[in-house]
Amino acid sequence: xxxxxxxxxxxxxxxxxxxxxxxxxxxxxxxxxxxxxxxxxxxxxxxxxxxxxxxxxxxxxxxxxxxxxxxxxxxxxxxxxxxxxxxxxxxxxxxxxxxxxxxxxxxxxxxxxxxxxxxxxxxxxxxxxxxxxxxxxxxxxxxxxxxxxxxxxxxxxxxxxxxxxxxxxxxxxxxxxxxxxxxxxxxxxxxxxxxxxxxxxxxxxxxxxxxxxxxxxxxxxxxxxxxxxxxxxxxxxxxxxxxxxxxxxxxxxxxxxxxxxxxxxxxxxxxxxxxxxxxxxxxxxxxx
Length: 288
Description:
The protein is an alpha/beta fold and 288 residues long. The protein has 13 helices and seven strands. The mean pLDDT is 91.
C-alpha cells in the first residue's frame, strides 16, 4: 500500500494507461487539425459558457493568493481565451499558448483593444516548448491548463509546474458521457464498443498529493446542447478518426457521411454534451 503515496507510482500508472480506449480518444482530440475544425462552434452556447464556472474559478484563485494586479500568467491551451481575457481584465499580463490557429483566431476576434497590451498570443504545441530556452522556468505567478491536451503526459505536466513561481490551476474531465454519434461511429470504425473513462485529471491530482502540493479540488457537472451542421460535424469526426484509426480518409469520409446523414434533420445535428469536470488549484510551495 505504501507505493500509492509515491510520485513514481502515479507517474507509472499514468504512463501505463496507453493501451485502452481512453488514451485513444485523447489522441483523437489532441491535434491542431481537430481543434481548428472544432473552434467554429466551441464556447458558442451560453449554457456551455456558464458551465465553465468562471466566477467560481476566479474566487478560488483569489482565495489562494493567485489573483492580483500585475501578475504574470501562462495559459497553456488557451483555446478561445475565456481565462486569458478574464485574467487580463483583472490586471494580469498573460502569455496565451495554443497549437490551434482556429482557436487563436477566435481569441483575437474577441480581444478588446483595452487588453491588447496585456496579452501575448503564441501558436505553439506545449509538448515542444523548451522552457529553459524561453526563460520560462519560475517566470509566471500563475500557470493554467484548462481542458488542455498540452499537459496530457507526466513530462508535460511537470514542465508546467516548473514554470510557476506561486501556483497552478488545471481542469479536465473526471467523467464524461460521450454523445451517441461518437459511440456509434467508434463501433462502426474501430469494430468494438467505446470504453472511455477519462482519468488523466485524476492522475494529476493524485500525483500532486504525492508531491505534497495538496490542491484544492472541486467538481462541476456540465451539460449543454449543441446544434451543428452535418458538414461541420463531418469535418470534426474526420479529424478525430483519421487520428485514432488505421483507415484512410477516403474510406472514412463516405462511412461517416452516410451515418451522419441518417441522424441529421434538415442538414443539422443536435448533440447533448454532459460530463463532470474537476478543477484543481495549488501552490507550488504550500508552506509559503
